[in-house]
Amino acid sequence: MHLQAGNGEAAVADLGGSIITGVDGNPLAVLARQLGIPLHDINGDNVPLYLRDGTQLDTAVDMQVDKVFNKLLDTSADLGDQLGSCSDALSLQAALDGLWHREAKRIRRQEQQQQALEQQQQHRVDCLMHEQFVAQQQQLQPLLQNSWLQLHHNCRLATQPLWQPLQPPPPLQSHPEANQPQLQPQLAPSSEQQQQQWQGLSGSLSLDKARDALMQWHFANIEFANAAGLGSLSVRHWDLDSEHEHEGAHVFLPGGNLRLLQGLVQGVPILYKARARLVQYSTSGVSLCAHAVA
């Protein structure tokens, strides 16, 4: 449905179902092909996600949360199996919220440890480069001193010197900051730099809040698929029908599933305000007897 606002802005809203989840052996997909209705594959790869402020989230963060979400589902299923009938009273929301809280803390702790390790490694590299630079300067110092003395001696023997005697070079500084080399090695991006990059692609949210927003999006998708809140779903029985799901691609049906109904009723008389009295089946077809209802 197309909506037109008074200020000239336009928007499109979807009314009713329009997605077929799994086309292999799905009668809805068969009917759509028989009616000549095009089906468009829904490919979730390379589809960007956006926050409420319009900021695009980094793909790496999306992949990280997606991997953790699948891990939470597997862990919750194992939890339901281990508890047996005792888990019947445990909701899927309680299980996922508890597991996600623990996993989020583990991720933050692991990132902090990785940052500390990279800082230690960088410190060792800086110290090693400083020691090498100081050693090279110490090796060059006698050569520089001898060269200056020889040049000064030649200047004194010249009857008409072309320049004033050179001043001796200043002593080498031993302060670490003064002896830092100009060229730094090219290192791989650290986890801190990666977090700064992710933070730049998470809008006004911190990285932790961006992860949590993505996880809540996955939780909402479960509620959409089950037409129920997580709090009313059992951690043990919520996915019992998953083995009966149709395989194959998920597709979008332009115009919605109403087009399937419109194709089915073509040529079929529809009587309103009538009550069916008799339905007869025969080799020639089906006949229906009805009488009007006031």
Please summarize what this structure is.
The protein is mostly helical and 294 residues long. The protein is built from six helices and seven strands, in the order E-E-E-H-E-H-H-H-H-E-H-E-E.
Whole-angstrom Rg: 37 Å
Strand content: 5-15%
Q: Could you spell the SSE succession in H and E letters?
A: EEEHEHHHHEHEE
- The helix fraction, in percent, is 40-55%
SS elements, strand count: 7
* Biggest beta-sheet profile: 3 strands, antiparallel
What would you note in describing this structure?
- The chain has 294 residues and is mostly helical.
- The chain has six helices and seven strands.
- The protein has helices at residues 27-34, 59-83, 92-157, 191-200, 207-226, 258-264, and strands at residues 2-4, 10-12, 19-21, 40-41, 250-252, 274-282, 285-292.
- The protein has a three-stranded antiparallel β-sheet with strand order 3-5-4, with no helix packed on it. A two-stranded antiparallel sheet has the order 1-2.
- Helix 2 (59-83) runs antiparallel to helix 3 and helix 2 (59-83) crosses helix 5 (207-226).
- The longest helix has 66 residues, at 92-157.
- The radius of gyration is 37 Å and the shape is elongated.
Notable features of this structure?
294 residues; mainly alpha; 3-stranded antiparallel beta sheet; two-stranded antiparallel ribbon; 6 helices; elongated
What topology does this entry show?
Layout: E1 2-4, E2 10-12, E3 19-21, H1 27-34, E4 40-41, H2 59-83, H3 92-157, H4 191-200, H5 207-226, E5 250-252, H6 258-264, E6 274-282, E7 285-292
Antiparallel strand pairs: 1-2, 3-5, 4-5, 6-7
